């Protein structure tokens, strides 16, 4: 599975999750303990909104505060679909070897596309948890993300981006291992 396929799959899963969110759900707690459902969905939309600009080669300084604030407005479905369409088109067209400019380094577009794909899918799981549902990842997608995140887990932990790794048996399914890696205990079913 290449980065573009991973992004397309993650975006589709996140979009399906966003379709389930009703305005009354926005006050629900999420596994991201500092964020309620509304704040988390706005964060996901914020990350998605950056994709076309970053893939066009813009720097963080050039983008500035363009995507700050409440991006959900009165119709979070419409806001999501517009941003999703623009991001999907940008990913479809980008040369994955192109250098893009992130806040911490210049990296290949492939790295950034994978990073956003992981963020979208893992936060879609968080949103589903706030809705008392549980998103099930395709095994190949969970394996791909695990393979991307695991070698960098210490850097991510030090950055505060993830919670403390949850210990799970080595025999656990890949989704359980992936969620544990980022500090998410998977609920019992």
Your description of this structure?
- With 189 residues, the chain is mainly α.
- A two-stranded antiparallel sheet has the order 1-2.
- It contains eight helices and two strands, in the order ααααββαααα.
- A hairpin with a 4-residue loop joins β1 (99-101) and β2.
- It has helices at residues 3-20, 37-55, 60-63, 76-93, 109-130, 139-149, 153-159, 174-181; strands at residues 99-101, 106-108.
- The protein folds into two domains: 3-132, Four Helix Bundle (Hemerythrin (Met), subunit A) (Up-down Bundle), CATH 1.20.120; 136-189, no CATH class.
- The model has no long low-confidence stretch (mean pLDDT 93).
List the helices and strands and how they pair.
Layout: H1 3-20, H2 37-55, H3 60-63, H4 76-93, E1 99-101, E2 106-108, H5 109-130, H6 139-149, H7 153-159, H8 174-181
Antiparallel strand pairs: 1-2
Helix pairs in contact: 1-4, 1-5, 2-4, 2-5, 6-8
Short description:
This protein has helices at 3-20, 37-55, 60-63, 76-93, 109-130, 139-149, 153-159, 174-181, and strands spanning 99-101, 106-108. The chain is mainly alpha-helical. It has two domains: 3-132, Up-down Bundle (Four Helix Bundle (Hemerythrin (Met), subunit A)); 136-189, no CATH class.
